[in-house]
Amino acid sequence: MRIVVGVGGGIAAYKAAELVRALGQRGHDVQVVMTKAAQEFIQPLTFAALTGRKVITGLFSEARSEDTLASAVEHIAVAKENDLLVVAPATADLLAKFANGLADDFLSTLYLAFTGTVVLSPAMNTAMWEHPATQANIETLRRRGCSIVDPDEGWLACGVTGAGRLPDPLRIADYVDALTRGKNDFQSETVLVTAGPTQEALDPVRYVSNRSSGKMGYAIAAAAARRGARVILVSGPVQLPAPPHVEVIHVVTAEEMRRAVFDRLEPATIIIKSAAVSDYYVADLPQQKRKKTATRLSLELDPTPDILAELGQQKGDRLLIGFAAETENLIEEARRKMTTKKCDMVIANLVTNKGLGFDSDRNEVDILSRSGQIVHAGPADKSEVAERILDQVATLRLNLRAVDATA
């Protein structure tokens, strides 16, 4: 794969050399772009020696100084020639430029012209990383589809200990491999994903729901599409943009989700039920708003349809993957769900983990298969966890096909 590595101007810039070498050793064709500030920390010659290619250091390349037009549009050519853009370290300045569409150097201009996958690995002082402006920029970039490799915690060059350290370059290379490995290994599959919460009305103006943001399901849908699948995403009410190349069906209630799932079940070969479906609804729904009084209000709730259990009864030869969000007895509850709902795999996570799961961009899960195997993933960005989940789904599918072939 052809990869651009953008190097920002932080003390961690020297680690980008190890990243470039690791990507090259894994068979990727790497082009390096450096900001002016990055050149204060490491010389372009280092990257030229590692890649065997010219290092781009500015909007007007010295190598093309005799051809002003070619130099002026070089960022367009580089954007078209490459499949993936990795920025490490992604400084606070670069994140702000990318999020706000500023383009005053080659790297920020390249970002605006780039239509492939973008991976950002931030590195900076802890206070800068935690500043609301930086976090707002990160959230903006995530919504636009950028993958974020969150910084590690540890000792920083400024003399403090905290979040903001550039991850090990080999971890970043592994993440890139996860995005590129077997890029079309789901090409023959139709993946049906559910995501987000459902909302059940209490009266014409109120409803009950849960804290699901839909981010995990959307990350899975996006990852499956990147890996060649046709993806159908049935989504409850969320504040997320549609993943690229994914068919999205918006629903509100559990019953609407059930109908949407079974209406689109026929082409599906893999079903991933990550939605947090409401367990109860008000069957006798009032036509008018309930008025507040001084007396206690009692509601009579009926159970919503158990979509996962119904799918387990009707899945045929499809793979069925469920999710178990628990507050205790995680593995035991996940195994129980796998058995009672006839799932082939269950993704289990503790919702009590601070900063993970619901409302978060990060997650930590255990992936349980019917064989008894348990694979741990995270804590990591949900896009990275999504890739790990799909890796296990792909392995399960291959194993089952091998069994069928020998039967």
Which features characterize this protein?
407 residues, alpha/beta, Rossmann fold, 2 domains, 8-stranded mixed sheet, 5-stranded parallel sheet, 14 helices, globular
Can you describe what's shown?
The chain contains 14 helices and 19 strands. By secondary structure, the chain is α/β, with parallel strands linked by helices. The protein folds into two domains: 2-180, Rossmann fold (3-Layer(aba) Sandwich); 190-406, 3-Layer(aba) Sandwich (Rossmann fold), CATH 3.40.50.10300. Strand 16 (319-326), helix 13 and strand 17 (345-350) form a beta-alpha-beta unit. Mean pLDDT is 87; it is low at 63-71.
Would you summarize the structure shown here?
By secondary structure, this protein is α/β, with parallel strands linked by helices. The chain has helices at 16-25, 44-51, 68-72, 74-81, 92-100, 106-113, 126-130, 132-143, 169-180, 215-226, 254-263, 307-314, 330-340, 382-406; strands spanning 2-7, 29-34, 84-90, 117-122, 147-148, 152-155, 161-165, 190-195, 200-201, 207-208, 230-235, 247-250, 270-273, 280-281, 302-303, 319-326, 345-350, 362-369, 374-381. Helices cover 35% and strands 23% of the residues.
State the CATH superfamily name of the largest domain: CoaB-like
The top-level CATH class of the largest domain is Alpha Beta
CATH fold name of the largest domain: Rossmann fold
Number of strands: 19
Report helical residue fraction: 25-40%
Q: How many discrete domains?
A: 2
The major β-sheet equals: 8 strands, mixed
| Lateral arrangement of strands in the main beta sheet | 12-11-8-13-16-17-18-19
Radius of gyration, Cα only, in angstroms? Answer: 24 Å
Overall average pLDDT: 87
